[in-house]
């Protein structure tokens, strides 16, 4: 049986992190991981058994080669990643603990990805054979060229019958750098999506609404209703509910809402002993997407997504290289002793 | 005063573990520890001040030399460990966190220990001067030769008046590899033991009983009664009760039951911030054994065993190199600030 | 505006610590940090934006150079640190976990600092331009010369109108080594202080009182009253209340009491996921001192001190290199998700 | 233009090496690299820009996944690598220095590759589209099944018009383990090859000749003449001449001899400051193969091969991930200052 | 006696290097050092006992703070380093070996230093009290603003009677990025210098001459003659002669030529076992400068410079933190056994 | 056959070394090895298959335990090592390279060993069963108590018929610390020795002679003649001749001279790519001692000693854990390619 082919378009980043719980450059060493919101989803889906390809642009130097090589290691096709003169986007991470929050220092301006123009991508060729296109709100926030390229990709996908998955990932600081019209651009992208990963805050940015409801889930329900009304092609909206008790201890629940009125809840998990919280949202998105691609019902899909996200919190790096069997084992048993 | 001499027979293993909480080979490095159920007990007892000797077989190469050298470092006599051409048993460990269970990949088939024949051991010589022989259910599970060697050791010890300590350590996967008669072999070993470390599940395997009681402790009591009836030489049965709230947070209690009706309970401890859970059961066994050798009462012995096991969870590696004073400090005070 | 100049007199120590949660020399590597009660305060105050100078004596070798270099890295002026032939004080640290307490093995006898005589310091020159002098009870405990030098410094400061901050830091083992009159020496130092970091146990040592009150805070109130009576120049007394639930989980509250009857409480924080507890008290002292220097009220100062101490528990090493903004962010929000 | 497709059949091994110049397990850590004679060639050719696929069998566990993932990282197609229950072949490496030779301890018996039967490979499918098949003498030495599979591959390739490259790599110890008929099996493989990487010692094994000539190159010439006579399809024979002045300093020259009488020499290079000598021969083979595929003349090809081998000695691990441009830069200039 | 005060103006860079002799990101870790041509000189001079201040601009983030902190650690005053929003210049280093040259990948475009305008520096204040200003040809190559700032500094120094030391450091790639008039700008800087570190290639760029002499030293003599003629204020010209036998083995000699006809030669040293060649030229410049400041004759100065450079090749990182005594010990004895 | 029992009396030291070729505390980490001149000999002899026991005194803390544990790991009996309150002797090592000599910073004053009194050792018991006692000139240099204990040991050995091996190891700095009569004490020790490891410089110290001969070997011959005359019990004198071409490249030859006129020379080896030179002399002493114990002739013994010393230069740490087979392989072949 043919595997579902998912293509992900976005920037590959190098994370340069302080070891363990050290402050940045407290000792003169950095641990390197590869990441990027869309790449994180790509790697998850490849480990879930799908055919996955990454699309984008990297620097034609050893750093860019390391980024694409790492994706290939996880089984992602990188033939659609351009390598051009330029620089790679970087981010420096200090992982917190207890009362000290983790901190990211971005150094991603003027990366090869951000400077690529819409003309650099041949979407007909890049989307050929794809069943799904996954995008996120990070790419269009990087500048007008990246925004246009992202919109082009989404529209062309829609025209070609490729389903579109869009993760809101609203980052105000990035939009402010170039005074971009976040609401306008994101609205165009929402207007192409079959599924959005977004909560009431994203919908508020895109559609201008306010959600005064006291209960978080009520706010999400209202936002979803507004989204389904505004975007007639939209079929699903999914999001997590996260509470941070300390840096090492979060509570994480999730919802998946359908245009047809379906509402699936994954009850909140107590996420303790957190190793690496980065990429948790992307792991959730990949998990839900897998569930839906796999034809599971909404409830199974959102539970799969939440369990995948829980596992991500235990794994160093941005990626969540876990198999379907490992996610299902967590859902099924919840036994935590050594597996021999 | 002459120190009690304990000899331990079993396989030495090399643990090759992913650093920290990384996935296996996520970065290209492995941290190495030496282990093995019986060796773990040997090291504990040596640190408790007893005269301890390891018996067994290793490969005559740098890996085998590293294993015996590490035991000597901890004060264990390794003159009784044969070094022959062959390979060392290995296991690869991925230490989990939070919702992600730790995983062991064994690569121990056809090790020098597993291939040693009963004729390779001269039990009269090896047991000379010993007060106790410690064995576990891992050795006989490795194959017919290892099973016979273990039975030979236990029987000869019994004949020589050497007391026998036996840790059930039932591992179905190992027995399945060679279709061994686990129940039959283990029954022979139980039949030689003065003390067994076993709970109702082990007794179920060995004697075929079922324990439908809702309360775990009731099941243990019933199993002990059955064991004391089946094995007239058996004087003690001890076991822990473990519940896993997450990979980093367990609850651990313990029981020690005597043929004479003695029942000693160590109330459950909340074991948090777990560093390394491997070897926890062996640390318990060594602690109880120390208590009994030391002439402490049953309650003191089981509390000592549980405290030793709690400390093991905080120490990287399979061994539990803590002193009697350190265990007693934990029992006595339970103060956790820096000791200067 | 002129920055407040604080000078700190005390010993610089090298900490040689086992990596992670390993036992000391379990693997053949030591991680090095620089510390010392007064140096820890110096580094904190420098990061809070004050002009800070360290006074003292180090060995004229690469270890002493590393210690002063590390202070300079954090912005502390080290021109007043003498480098003379001799040895550096060392301490070896095993960081505990769960049920296993951290342990310090001191190797600081006969250090260059401990052997320096009162005549080696020209206090008029060293205190020139200073607004505050910070001392602790560790220095006088190192020997008669160090005790006299500390008293000289405190008295000269008082005469020159330099305010004196004194952290009790009572260490009975150090005093016993040379049979020093702890109570007498400390009394002289308390008699020079504008602020003391001390609780009822310190006051008991110095003034001989007993504090039978059941409630800890009542004991502190009684001790403060006794101190304000005995030491007419004393204006403030501050201390923390720490409870250790496990090695990784403490509860930490704080009080600041004024001669004028002011009593400010910082409610107890649950300090989880502790990375490094060493230097927590010094971080508190620096935080309170900053608050008072900054002209904040008592309540703001004690909350600032407690928040600084909480952050210290998350940072490897003895120092607490956090900015005012970082401490205030913790007080203000208490949000623990990644900051991008 | 279509890229040349090279398929390589052989075992993937995990190298577990002592860090730096330490003895094995002198400190409790191992550095991991992936290797295997044929995989080394595959990775080189992929970095030289060819389309490369690996064929073989790995264990269906995290170690096998790491091995194939690492090949993918270097751009090698691993779709033709089977993953089945079993174990991975391992080797433990102690890297020497000065007067101390490097040492390999093999632990590769009964690996998933060695136990795979000839029926496990569908050569028609695996060779479809290939231009070249690369094999080595290591695979058939692993046991009768592996030997037959290798012969099957070579013969089927010949039938399908796929050119065959064969690296002698004679390892007497491996053949002795199963009493294999090395000469007979290797003769069958030589009889299928278009190019063999072999010197007079290999030819001596295969054809029984002796080469008493004093000059090494004369011996190689005589062996080549004998080989071209015995194997009418054979077009090229290539080999290096290595002299070891110390562990860190070798001399390395090379020859490429053609059936048509071509003789190309690459003059001996002084290879100093050796970082990792493992894989040097495979790097040479890949370099010569690239030169021939690329249509360079014999002299250019052998110089390219030798330069690639020289670079390999400077790179940690078994692979030689250098580009054509990097090899050519070495041939062209031989300037050794920093490139900015 | 007042110490000579030297101020150095230039960019601070973070070096992110592959560990040991690995390829970049071969393993996922980077070792960090701070560097920059002028900062390297600053650190050397501070270790030689001079009063040294760094001038420049860094990013107001943890990376910039790490850079200035590291300079302070080495005793350099960083009060004149501005911290502003922006990014730090980075470079990625792969250290070569044997036949494989080291490679630098720069990622320094649009750094906070490069974007600083001439108006950001108040030269009268920054040069107050200085005896020497050290500059290099790297700064003006970074862009028109940096070029103008460097020229301003040099001219103002000349007006204020501060001596100017200028290291040519010609980097064509940097000038090409912004099409800068290298010859014109460098000429203006040469025209302010009391001493230039330059050889015939630099003079060729600046004055357009060609130096066809076969002997390198003749070329240097001719270039010096031309320079002394063109720049009447110039008193000294110094340079090294380097030959690279392999990446780990260089030959290094040096010359110092005076306007008065002085010619001092330091005979070529065989530099073997090279640990880190970066910063060798800066170490030489600092050594010569120290010799001249110290009032040594030309021959002593150039020998001191060459010995300092030789030591630099043995020290990881860009800095050369060696004392006068250590350099003199090398000149004096050349004994290489352990010093106890 | 009974193995020869050798007992070694001396101090165990902890070496705290900068990693790789870094300067001390350039990065905040130290690598730890155990050493000590006599312990180094003990470990070598244990690896050569002899029964070896260490005698001495360590601190009763984790550092002392690590030192004795490490000796046990290498097969040395540590039952005769006392553990008492106190401190361990330390030394800090910076390993040089090229032109930069390695440097040792000692921190060994007032160690538990140095403070032990002659009455702390019961020589009759400690020497029981011994065939040889090995001592060195380091122990008596540590203070009057250590000097007396060493003399006691040597004299008692002589009385008991235990042969005495003495390594001069003259360290003027240590003797100066306590104004000890080096010549007098060493004379007493030479007067007890069957073999001394010493060259003309040691003999000059002990017997006051001068050796003006130009040829080093002539000086050694003259010194040996003087020693055999002065010390009638002395049978052998052995020493190396070392020349240091650079830190990484030495030349090392050796001589063994007998009272009976035997003179055995081991021609100088070029020792390149030096990893760790510390302990080279001890490795030589152990090698010669092994040769003599083994009944080899003088020439075989001195060649064995030199080959052992060459191997030591390639091994990190103070110990030389190589087997007889490994030393003989070096003597026999001198082949330096990988051993598989």
TrEMBL record, chains A, B, C, D, E, F:
**CDD domains per the record?**
KdgK (cd01166)
One Gene Ontology term of the molecular function aspect: kinase activity
Q: Keyword Transferase, does the record have it?
A: yes
What is the similarity comment for this entry? Belongs to the carbohydrate kinase PfkB family.
Q: Which UniProt keywords apply?
A: Kinase, Transferase
Q: Which Gene3D superfamilies match?
A: 3.40.1190.20
The identity of this protein, by name, is: 2-keto-3-deoxygluconate kinase
